[in-house]
From TrEMBL:
MF terms (GO), sorted A to Z: alpha-mannosidase activity; carbohydrate binding; metal ion binding
InterPro entries listed in its UniProt record: Gal_mutarotase_sf_dom, GH38_beta-1, GH38_C, Glyco_hydro/deAcase_b/a-brl, Glyco_hydro_38_C, Glyco_hydro_38_cen, Glyco_hydro_38_cen_sf, Glyco_hydro_38_N
Domain Glycoside hydrolase family 38 central intervals: 297-370
This protein's name: Alpha-mannosidase
Family under the similarity heading: Belongs to the glycosyl hydrolase 38 family.
Keywords: Glycosidase, Hydrolase, Metal-binding
Keyword Hydrolase: yes
Gene Ontology BP terms: mannose metabolic process; oligosaccharide catabolic process
């Protein structure tokens, strides 16, 4: 029997920003990298340093030390600096499926630019791990995974727990995803610091290694033991080679090797035992006491999540599809601009950043990055839709009409009550003084007559005139100086029904001599307080809650839309209700109801409720924060002083929609509390389904025997669903990533806002900005389905398309090669959820990516299939069994050309 091998890997877990602002961590990174480059020159036996699975570290360093670029490149190519495979270490659950892919794609591109990447999906400190990781790693051409959280055994802060139920008997295990993909995985059972600061003194070294070797051997499935020589922001141990010489002298029966992940994983894979365990799906520590799953980071600083979602939609679902449609395989596609925007967005996606669990300075800087990435996306999208508009033939419209183009950039059909603004007339500054031109446009506004909206055949399209406005505007031509003007704008509203995926249509606003007969159909009965169309009947009660009849199934859901406010004496990581359990419900007060819109297009009803809430926690909480008392031991209550919070919710029911949309706003001036909105389902079910990363994940409504936390928060992307054998309810959202299933009638609780005053974790870091004082708006929806899979997945697709409005742009009357009503491609599938339409990285062809929303075999019907092949995430050939068939939970990426 040979010696056991101890693989010591030097590393530093590098959070770019966390308990200090980015630049504070950045300057420490410069020192670390300087030390490493110097150490490589001095100590030839120092094998390598693992740069935490990221490539952005090199960019950050070279911003300050550009003169050392060639030295860095040399050390990467030699394998001294181990980089990648990711661009940043992301949070799995709080960024979109596509953002996870771009992290892999850009990380792969950057790694190739420097040298080689580490062949390891590296997730040392993500707060739980997504279930599709095995399939995603295979699609990124990665063989292994390593992670620190989610299953037992676990060793946070080097603790190894005894007498517990273990998910895996070893620290190595097979990890199988919902599609049955499998990857060999390593859990940092004694955390990623189990070999940190190795002593060089023999007596200290003996004590150190006796403990560390025993802990590692307790769970290792092979004779290859992993020692992680580093921890968060740890400087390199410069004498680690000498420390290993001491260890070798003390323990001659072991072989101590200063090594790297590639060599360690190769050794492990050659000697794995037959009884190696298997874990399945997402890893979220469900067999622990539930306090430290850190799932409440999904609602911490909710404004970050909302902004992140909006920027993702701008890039993924607007700018990229429009650019693909407009440039279609040409070199005009804005690769560099989009990559720049993606990198900016991804810099906000590390777990301590997007999770909202850092100090205030960190999150203030994040908002600037969001804004920059969004502006790039808006610029690219505007340029692309203008290019597309110029390609569409509008010559059939009357010369005095104003054509406008509507584009559905979603990968599924969309129904929307759409508002469009049209410039009716303009007066150039070049032709007169600004004030004279303003008055001219005001006069034109006064002279407005009747209008009609027509399609390319002249057929009239029902619409509603909303308003007119005169204001300043300007053009920025690409070949000449700016053009300022005053303009008269007209705003109209119309219903767009079942507009196909990636399609467009041209309509025009035109004058008419006929007086429009007002449509008399209305969808709200003010006397009865009933909202109703062909699919839903909604009764608004005195307290603002709703009783909803789903006509498809003839089932009534009562007591919907109730706001719940509780005290929160926890931190940015973990919610802890105040010990007095003081809860305030909107159902206990009267509501004010106002009609905002009620016509043939649909209805918008405003509900206003004023809740009297405690202004904060009591004084004890500040002491408990300062004394760093663990949240599970805190005794703080809510203040006795009450202040008003007015909640305004607009409910929208359009003529052709089988869902209700909500927009809730309030000005939060309270501290230390949590606000949720409750939807009681009354459905008998033990499970819920939630939108996750390339997966509709099925989760239990009940906790394990070891669970102690009185709450059970969960992550979501776009929706959560509960159903029984007759049908169910889907709650959609925009950037509201936390929900909980309450045992009382299987109520879906959607978290709107959490207000806390400290970061938490290893000390006291005050975070007044995390109290989230100020104005907030939240968007969400409710839809119902029958027992069929098709009906259920349709509510899922709706929740996704709710996040992306139909795009519009005004255009001129001109000829063009594209028809006035057409589509870039045809795509029909109930279960295929599209995550990306973009141009291939090498510009030869387009990329369409999506996944099967269900655990059933499904199919894709599209005109691209005859011209397509399948590729992986890094856009290399990846053969499939069938182009049009989808295996359960399968992720599929098509590459095609027209």
């Amino acid at each position: 029997m040979g010696k056991k091998k101890v693989f010591v890997i030097s590393h530093s877990h590098w959070d770019r920003e966390w308990y200090m602002a980015y630049e504070q961590h950045h300057m420490r990174l410069v020192k670390l990298m300087d030390d490493l480059l110097d150490l490589f020159n001095k100590e030839p036996r120092f094998n390598s340093f693992h740069l935490d699975g990221q490539t952005i570290i090199l960019d950050d360093y070279l911003k300050v030390r550009p003169e050392r670029r060639s030295e860095v490149e040399k050390r990467v190519q030699e394998g001294k600096l181990r980089i990648g495979p990711f661009y940043i270490l992301q949070d799995d659950f709080l960024i979109s499926p596509e953002a996870n892919v771009r992290d892999m794609l850009i990380g792969n591109q950057e790694s190739k630019k420097w040298g080689n990447r580490v062949n390891l999906g590296y997730f040392p400190d993500t707060f739980g791990n997504m279930g599709q990781t095995p399939q995603m790693l295979k699609l990124a051409d990665l063989k292994y995974a390593a992670f620190g959280r989610g299953v037992k055994p676990t060793g946070l802060n080097n603790q190894v727990f005894d007498n517990e139920k273990y998910t895996s008997q070893y620290s190595e295990m097979w990890w199988q995803g919902p599609d049955n993909s499998k990857v060999l995985s390593v859990l940092f059972a004694n955390w990623y610091s189990n070999g940190n600061e190795i002593p060089i003194d023999k007596a200290e070294a003996k004590k150190f290694w006796d403990e560390k070797l025993a802990d590692a051997e307790k769970y290792a499935s092979t004779d290859n033991l992993l020692m992680m020589n580093g921890v968060d922001h740890q400087p390199v141990q410069k004498n680690v080679i000498q420390a290993l010489d001491v260890a070798q002298e003390l323990y001659p029966d072991y072989e101590f090797i200063h090594s790297n992940f590639d060599d360690y994983l190769q050794a492990v894979s050659k000697s794995i035992p037959k009884d190696l365990g298997k874990i399945n799906g997402e890893l979220t520590s469900q067999e622990t006491d539930g306090w430290y799953t850190l799932a409440n980071t999904s609602s911490s600083r909710v404004y970050l999540k909302q902004e992140n979602t909006k920027v993702e939609r701008e890039l993924e679902n607007i700018a990229e599809p429009l650019s693909t449609m407009a440039y279609n395989g040409t070199t005009d596609y804005p690769h560099d601009q989009l990559r720049y925007a993606w990198k900016m967005l991804l810099q906000n996606n590390p777990h301590d950043s997007i999770c909202g669990c850092s100090v205030d300075d960190v999150h203030r800087e994040m908002m600037t990055r969001f804004a920059k990435a969004k502006e790039v996306g808006k610029f690219v999208a505007r340029d692309a839709i203008a290019t597309l508009a110029n390609q569409i033939n509008t010559s059939k419209f009357p010369q005095d009409s104003k054509p406008f183009i509507l584009v559905n950039t979603n990968g599924h059909e969309k129904t929307e009550m759409k508002t469009v603004e049209i410039e009716w007339e303009r007066a150039l500054f070049a032709d007169g003084k600004p004030e004279d031109q303003y008055e001219a446009m005001k006069q034109a506004q006064n002279d407005l007559s009747e209008f009609k909206v027509i399609d390319q055949t002249g057929r009239e399209v029902p619409f509603d005139f909303v308003s007119s406005d005169v204001r300043f505007g300007y053009d920025l031509p690409k070949d000449k100086f700016r053009i300022p003007y005053m303009a008269l704008y007209i705003t109209i509203q119309l219903n767009l029904t079942a507009m196909p995926a990636f399609s467009w249509k041209v309509l025009a606003l035109s004058k008419t001599n006929q007086i429009r007969k007002p449509e008399v159909k209305q969808y709200y009965d003010a006397d009865e307080r009933i909202l109703e169309n062909n699919w839903l009947r909604v009764s608004i009660k005195d307290n603002g809650s709703l009783n909803i009849l789903d006509k498809k199934t003839n089932r009534e859901y009562d007591n919907q839309l109730i706001f719940e406010d509780t005290g929160d004496i926890g931190n940015e990581y973990i919610y802890r209700q105040s010990v007095d359990q003081k809860t305030v419900l909107s159902s206990d007060i009267q509501a004010k109801i106002k009609v905002l819109q009620n016509n043939f297009l649909g209805a918008k009803i405003q509900i206003q409720q004023t809740m009297m809430l405690p202004e904060s926690a009591d004084a004890r909480l500040e002491y408990e924060r300062q004394a760093v008392i663990d949240i599970t031991q805190r005794k703080a209550k809510r203040s006795d002083k009450l202040v008003p919070l007015t909640i305004t919710t607009v409910i929208t029911l359009s003529k052709n929609a089988d869902q209700l949309k909500f927009k809730t706003s309030f000005n939060n001036q309270m501290k230390d509390h949590r606000m949720r909105v409750l939807f009681r389902t009354n459905l008998k079910s033990n499970y819920n389904s939630a939108d996750s990363i390339f997966e509709t994940v099925k989760r239990s409504n009940h906790v394990s025997d070891s669970w102690k936390n009185p709450t059970n928060p969960q992550h979501q992307q776009n929706f959560v669903n509960i159903c029984d054998d007759q049908g169910g309810v889907t709650i959609g959202n925009l950037g509201l990533n936390e929900y909980e299933i309450l045992p009382d009638n299987n109520t879906i609780a959607l978290t709107l806002l959490c207000s806390v005053g400290e970061m938490g974790d290893w000390g006291y870091f005050g975070t007044p900005d995390a109290q989230c004082l100020g104005k907030f708006t939240f968007e969400y929806s409710i839809a119902f389905h029958d027992q069929s899979i098709m009906s259920q997945t349709e509510t899922y697709q709706q929740a996704k398309t709710n996040q992306v409005s139909i795009q519009s742009i005004q255009t001129s009357i001109h000829t063009g090669k594209r028809k006035p009503e057409s589509a870039f491609m045809t795509l029909k599938s109930d279960s295929f959820a599209v995550t990306s339409l973009k141009q291939a990285e090498n510009s030869s062809g387009n990329i369409l990516r999506g996944y099967n929303l269900t655990q059933n075999e499904s199919s894709v019907d599209s005109n691209i299939l005859s011209k397509a092949k399948t590729v992986n995430f890094i856009e290399e050939d990846y053969p499939t069994k069938s182009l049009n068939m989808l295996e359960p939970a399968e992720i599929k990426t098509y590459k095609f050309s027209f």
